[in-house]
Amino acid sequence: MRRLLVPFDGSGPAGRALDVALRIGSEIDLVHVQREADSPVLLLHITPDQLRKLQLEHAATVVADARARLEAAGVGHRVHLCIGEPAVEIARLAREGQVDGIVMGSRGMGALGNLAFGSVATKVVHLADVPVTLVK
């Protein structure tokens, strides 16, 4: 059995990563991570708990199509919706879920963009304890 973790943000590369995972995996952990929202202006109008609820509701909409694809394919899967630093959460879920590998999209910012801003994919490669496959 090959369990793969697929971070999904709704982008084209993430969709292609899911395609690859569907071809090579027998079970898939689909994950979407929302960054912690800490806008002081926003928090004047809603509570932190309300903000968290809204973020998780948004996360569910982001993965809805991917979840439907997994169900239509008959592939066993789990969905994880998280709030935090994406690379850290992805690596944590891979470790805790005892997955065999991570298949994720690469945004393709190029060397200069990655140097200036870093990327979630680059950070995951450094943090993960399992093989990471990047898909353009």
Brief synopsis:
This protein is of the alpha/beta class and 136 residues long. It has helices spanning 12-24, 40-43, 48-73, 86-96, 110-117, 120-127; strands at 3-7, 27-34, 76-83, 101-105, 132-135. A five-stranded parallel beta sheet has the order 3-2-1-4-5, sandwiched between helices.
Describe it for me?
It is a single chain. By secondary structure, the chain is of the alpha/beta class. 51% of the residues lie in helices and 22% in strands. The protein is built from 6 helices and 5 strands. The chain has a 5-stranded parallel sheet, sandwiched between helices. The longest helix is centred in the middle third of the chain and has 26 residues.
The shape, in one word, is globular
Task: Note the beta-strand portion.
Answer: 15-25%
- SSE string, helices as H and strands as E: EHEHHEHEHHE
Number of helices: 6
Structural class: alpha/beta
Low-confidence stretches: 109-117
Write the layout of secondary structure elements.
Elements: E1 3-7, H1 12-24, E2 27-34, H2 40-43, H3 48-73, E3 76-83, H4 86-96, E4 101-105, H5 110-117, H6 120-127, E5 132-135
Parallel strand pairs: 1-2, 1-4, 2-3, 4-5
Characteristics:
136 residues, alpha/beta, 5-stranded parallel sheet, 51% helix, 22% strand
